C-alpha cells in the first residue's frame, strides 16, 4: 500500500489541529499553501489510483447524540493535483510530492467557524486520493485539517423597523391599549460592542406610571431536518451541481491541468423541508433598568437599556454565534423587553413585541486590527521575497564583482611601507602562567643593550632584527626606523643607570666577565678552606682541642 499525507510548507502539523493560512475571510483573499505526499509502505506495492485532489470546504452539520444527523456543503473549492492518463482505468501511484496553492476570493460564501450543541459550521482542507475499490478500505483515502475561519466582513445594514410605534394591550387591566416604541441600534453588534435600546412608552391614561423594565437578548436556533427521501449526499450533489468550473493552465509541478471549482451559496431549498422541526432558545445577555423612568414633555416614559455583547469565546467553550440563514438551520437573535407599571388598581406587567437584532463575529476595532496585521504580514513577505530574489540573481556576476572589489594579496601593504604584508604566522599555543612546565622555565633571552658592541667589518650587513622577512627574501621594518647598520645608532645607557659601558680586554673578553670569574673563584676558595679546617678539627685528638670556659661559672 501507499501512505498518504497532507502537509504544510512551513509549519509543524503534528501538534496542531489547524492548517496555516493567510488572509481574512470576507475582507481579503485567503491563500493556503501545502504539499500532498504519497510514499510506498514496507510492502512496496503501488496503489492503483484514479486522481488526487485537494479541497477547501465549508460544512454545516446538525448534530445528534451519536454524531451528525445531516450535513450540507456550503462552499467547495477543489483543485485536481494528479489524474490518471486518458484511455486507462487507473495508474499506479508510488512516491509522489504534489505542491498546491489555493486562493479563496474575498467574496467567498460561508460562515464563521461555529460550534453549538445541536449545530456546527466548520471549514476544512481535505486531500483525497481516489483509487480502485479495495476490500476493507473502500475507494478513497482522505486526510484533512480544520481551518479556523472567522468572517470579518459586514452584511448589508439592517432595514429600519416597519412600525416605529406599536400598540400594546395590557392584560387584566381595564385601560385602553398603550402605544410604545423600541429603538434598536441601526448597526451590527459585534463582540464587546455596547447595544443601547431606547424604550418609549406613551400611556393611554394619566394614571399609568412605568416602574421598571428588563431586557434580554436571546438566540434562537431553528433546525430544518430533511425529509426521509433525501439525505446529506443529495445535499452535496445539489451543491456541486451549482458550481462554476474554472480551468487553469497546466502546472509543471503536477504535470496535469488543475481544475478549480468554487461552490456559491446554495439555494435555500435543496430539500423538501418541514416548516419548523426544532427551535432551541438560549438567553445570551440581559439587563434591568436602574432608577426611575423619565417623563418628557411629549407625554412619554423614556428609558435607555444598555448591554455589552460578550466576547468571542475560546475553542473550548460553546460559541455565541452570528446571524445565519442556511439550508439546514438558521441562527437569529431577538430582543425581548418586559415592563412593570403602576395603575390605580395595582401593579401590572406586560411584554413588548420582540424585535430582531443583527449580530456579527467581529467588531470595528477587531476588523481594523486584523487588517493592519494582514498588511504588515504582506509587507514582511514582500521584503523577504525581494531579499531572496536579490540573493539568487546572477550569483556568478556578483561573485566576480566581489573579487574585483577585493584587493589582491600583493597590494595589501603596511601604511608606512610599499612592501606587501607577509602571511600571518600561526600562533603557538602556550600554557597558562600558572603552569610549572618546562616551557615556562625557559630562561629569558639576554638584553642586547648589556652586551658589548663590537665594531667589526661585518656590522654593516643587513640584520633581521626589527624587520619582517618574506619568503622571497624581501624585508621591511615592522615598526620604528628601518636601519641596516646598527653601529650608526649606538644605544648609550642613561647617566643615572647603574650600568656602565663594558670595556674590552686584550684577550677578547671583557672586564665584567673577568670580575665575575674572580668572584666565583674567591667564593670557591673560601668554601674549600672552611671545609678543610672543619675536617682537621674533627680528626685531631680531644686533648689537643682548646678547652672552653665553664659557661655557668662565667654567668655566675
UniProtKB/TrEMBL annotation:
Task: List all Low complexity biased stretches.
Answer: 229-250
| Residue ranges with Polar residues bias | 457-466, 547-556
Annotated Basic residues bias: 383-400
Q: Which residues form the signal peptide?
A: none
What ranges does the record list as Basic and acidic residues composition bias? 401-412, 439-456
Cite the residue spans of the region called Disordered.
Answer: 227-250, 363-510, 532-556
Name of the protein this chain belongs to: Uncharacterized protein
